[in-house]
Amino acid sequence: ALEALKIAVEAGLDIKQANSKGVTALHGAAERGANSIVQYLADHGAPMNVRDRQKWTPLDYALGRNSVAQLPIPHESTVALLQKLGALEGKDIK
Predict the structure, then answer these.
(1) Do the beta carbons of residue 6 and residue 40 sit within 8 Å?
(2) Cβ distance 25 to 2 under 8 Å?
């Protein structure tokens, strides 16, 4: 997945773009616990604290808070990485 992302970015993919639900590539990587992709996106300027339409940030996704159909499954190493990169929870963004 990381190699595919690199190719897409080289081809002009805007990693800051969100879908109709406000979800960015960083939200998706955080939700999956894909640390190498989280780091790559951060290195290429992905915003750490963008909120989706539900007001969840990538850090909230890593914490498993965006899941309503199942119990939250946090990705502890991804949470730590995002926090190191300056990510905040949606509730902490004014």
Answers:
(1) yes
(2) no
Of the candidates 23, 72, 19, the one whose C-alpha atom is nearest the C-alpha of residue 51 is 23
Q: Which residues have C-beta within 8 Å of that of residue 75, sequence separation ≥ 6? A: 30, 32, 33, 62, 64
What is the C-alpha to C-alpha distance for residues 71 and 16, in angstroms, rounded to an integer? 29
- Residue with the two structure tokens 């909230």: 60
pTM > 0.90: yes
CB 26 within 8 A of CB 50: yes
For residue range 22-74, list pLDDT tens digits in order.
Answer: 999 999 999 999 999 999 999 999 999 999 999 999 999 999 998 776 778 89
What are 17's two structure tokens? 């773009």
Cα distance between residue 30 and residue 10, in whole Å: 22
Tell me the CB-side half-sphere exposure of residue 82, using CA atoms within 13 A. Answer: 33
